[in-house]
Amino acid sequence: MRVAIVADTHGVLDERIAAWISGCDLAVHGGDIGSASVLDALERRVARVIAVLGNNDVPAKWLPAETNVLTRIPTQAELELPGGCLAVIHGHRFGGTRERHERLRMRFPHARAVAYGHSHQLVCDQEAIPWVLNPGAAGRSRTFGGPSCILLTATHSEWRVEIQRFSNSRSDGASAGNAGSKGGLSFC
Question: What are the helix and strand counts (H, E) for the chain?
Fold first, then answer.
């Protein structure tokens, strides 16, 4: 099963990320979605979409016509995938960077991995189970080097994580709807 993990879009899903995750079995959004249009863009590319609310996913920060969507989005999700559970939460209530991973592991000890957002910082912490994964920002806001996401491939016997970060440059065709140039693909 191929699972795209994104977060912190704040109303804009980078088109290169949308193209890169196209065809995944599942997309998971770790919160601060910012607009129903982000969920629509994911649903056009991926078979199934699961999202959780972030601290900015509140009626005052969404278009009035879209606020009804917020009532259907949970604050956390636990997904049974081949080989284990993926927990998803925005992470804004788990302290600062230093203690956040420890607290997420304590909150979801049964999970194989925990995906979160909030910090906009791309992180792939596999030092202990559950892994703690932050895909960084998949939009335009505070991308710290460029929009990024994580692809989790889950089988009953193995989980594998790929990181994708695109260039921060807006002149590479991102706004034109093509894939642009990849900034960096790595495995962890």
Answer: 4, 11
- The strands making up 49-51's β-sheet, listed across from edge to edge, are 49-51, 26-29, 2-6, 148-154, 159-166, 182-187
Structure tokens at 83: 């080989």
As beta bridge partners, residue 26 has 3
Ordered structural domains, the chain, with CATH? 2-187 (3.60.21.10)
Q: Maximum CA pair distance of the chain?
A: 45
> Any idea how long the chain is?
188
The tokens describing 32, both together, are 């601060």
Question: What are the pLDDT digits (tens) for 127-145?
Answer: 999 999 999 999 877 776 6
Is residue 139 a contact partner of residue 8, using CB atoms and an 8 Å limit? yes
Of 187, 185, 173, whose CA–CA distance to 16 is shortest? Answer: 173
Helices (H), the chain: 15-21, 36-45, 67-70, 97-107
pLDDT digits (tens, 9 = 90+) for 139-176: 877 776 689 999 999 999 999 999 998 888 654 333 32
